[in-house]
Amino acid sequence: MKATIDEAACIGCGLCASDCPEVFAMKGEKAAVIATPVPAGKEDSCKNTASSCPVSCIKCE
Fold first, then answer.
1. Helix or strand or coil: residue 16?
2. Per-residue pLDDT at 53
3. What is the spatial distance between Cα 53 and Cα 8, in angstroms, rounded to a whole number?
4. Apex 5 CA angle, 54 and 60, nearest 5
5. Measured CA distances, 35 to 3, 9, 12, 20, 28 (Å)
6. Sign of CA dihedral 52, 45, 2, 60
7. What secondary structure letter does DSSP report for 8?
8. What is the pLDDT of residue 20?
9. Which of 61, 5, 59 is nearest to 32 (CA)?
10. Of the options 3.20.20.70, 3.40.50.300, 3.30.70.20, 3.40.190.290, the CATH number for the domain spanning 3-60
């Protein structure tokens, strides 16, 4: 599974980095993917984080 973030749409709320720190981190004022592919066992967490994003800029596919 691969996680992506639309950086132009990201508002930098930090929710993804706190919900799934194995995959996401804050880089300055925007979120970034730090694990490609998503680590085994973290797929559901990645999907839940994507669905929780307030601007829907995360995809976990």
1. helix
2. 98
3. 14
4. 90
5. 8, 20, 18, 11, 17
6. negative
7. T
8. 98
9. 5
10. 3.30.70.20
Domain ranges of the chain: 3-60
CB 46 within 8 A of CB 39: no
- Which tens digits make up the pLDDT trace of 42-56? 999 999 999 999 999
Per-residue model confidence as pLDDT tens digits over 2-34:
999 999 999 999 999 999 999 999 999 999 999
Pairing assessment for the beta strands 58-60 and 30-33 based on DSSP bridges: unpaired
Least Cα distance to 26 among 5, 52, 2 occurs for 5
pTM exceeding 0.85? yes
